[in-house]
Each structure stands twice: as structure tokens, then as C-alpha cells.
Amino acid sequence: MGSSSTPPPPSKRRRKDQSADDTSSPVVVFAHGAGAPSSSDWMIKWKDMLKKALNAVEVVTFDYPYISVGKRKPPPKAEKLVEFHADVVKKTVAKFPGHPLILAGKSMGSRVSCMVAGKEDIAVSAVICLGYPLQGMNGAVRDETLLQLVVPVMFVQGSKDGLCPLEKLEAVRKRMKPMNELHVIDGGDHSFKIAKKHLQIKRSTQDEVEDLAVQVIAKFISASLGEK
């Protein structure tokens, strides 16, 4: 009778520590956009949502050097951020060996994440692009990095995002080699913000719309990891 009362505590502990012990749980490296650091409200909110939805062992965020110097400076070309980003990824992989690696990014951070995912010495399971900046300031479509990728890519884009016309992204997606999916946030801008009037018409809230997007991301990542 006394021995039958001992099992519950270990089982509770196992559930609590499941993601740390279970190497099927992914580790995510999440990069910020050009204008705001990893400490921004947007990044913190999405970090928490991704961690929960993906049952991630950890979501690692960081600041690119140009944004960490105190004075706000414009970002350098995305290519110049790849080595620093890759170094963060390698350190994360060393800290969480055996866990599938997911790269995620906001805007510019998603573009650099795709560049890092193309490096031969880093094994990436999937990339999550939140507001991919497909179109440059000069109007040119920046599709080279996407067309070189061989890992699954999940795009989440606002329908009113001027940096990524959806018809142009659709054309690029058709030419991409790996499995890829697009979730459109109707009425969303580059940061997925939706006008109150639009939300009222749709009888929805900003939180509900973003929660749905995270659910779609989780389903895609689950499918991607299942293929490995």
C-alpha cells in the first residue's frame, strides 16, 4: 500500500521536464527585424507563442551587432550578418545537441535565417519566415536565397505588406525546391497589425488572428519534422 503512493511525483516530474529530455522537441533560433531589437514587445510576444506552440526546448533570441551599440544605426546588407547569425546558431546547437533546429525570423531576420539555412555546415530542419521582405526598396524581387534553399519553409505574410506582394511570393514559391507553405494574415501589415475596422468587420481580434497563424506554423513544423 505504501509503495503504490510513490509513482505520482516522478511522473509529474517527467511531464514537466519532457521538452528538455525529449530530443524530438525542437530548438528555435529567432532573429529580429531591421528596426527593433530582440527585446521589443513584438519579438517577446512571438517568442513566447512559438515556444508554446512548437513545444520547443528553447527559443533563442539575440541582437545583431549593429543594433547593440546603443546608437540606432541602419542595418548593413543582410549578407554581412550571416556569419554572426551562424555563430549564434552553432552555439545553440552545441548547447542543445540532438534537437531538431528551426530557424525563425522577423522581416530582415527571416532573410538572413534563409541564408544561414543554406550553409553546408549547419543542419536546419525548417525555416519560419514572419514577414519575408521579398521586394527591396528599389522594387527588385530578392528571390535568389529562397530559390537555393533545400529545407522546408513556412511563410506568414500580411496581405497589406508592401515589402512582399503576395502574387510575387506565389510565383517564387512555385519555383522553390523544398516543401513550403504560405499563411496570409488578412488585412495585416508588415508586422501583421490589422486595422480595428477590419477586425470588427471580420468579427475577430488581433490575438485570435495571430494565434491561428501560430497554429498553422506548428502544424507545418510537425509535418516537416515527420518527414525527417
UniProtKB/TrEMBL annotation:
SUPFAM superfamilies linked to this entry: alpha/beta-Hydrolases
Annotated region described as Disordered, given as residue ranges: 1-26
Pfam families attached to this UniProt entry: Abhydrolase_11 (PF20408)
Membrane-spanning residues: none
Pro residues: bias regions: 1-10
Domain KANL3/Tex30 alpha/beta hydrolase-like: 26-221
Record protein name field: KANL3/Tex30 alpha/beta hydrolase-like domain-containing protein
Native source organism of the sequence: Xanthoceras sorbifolium
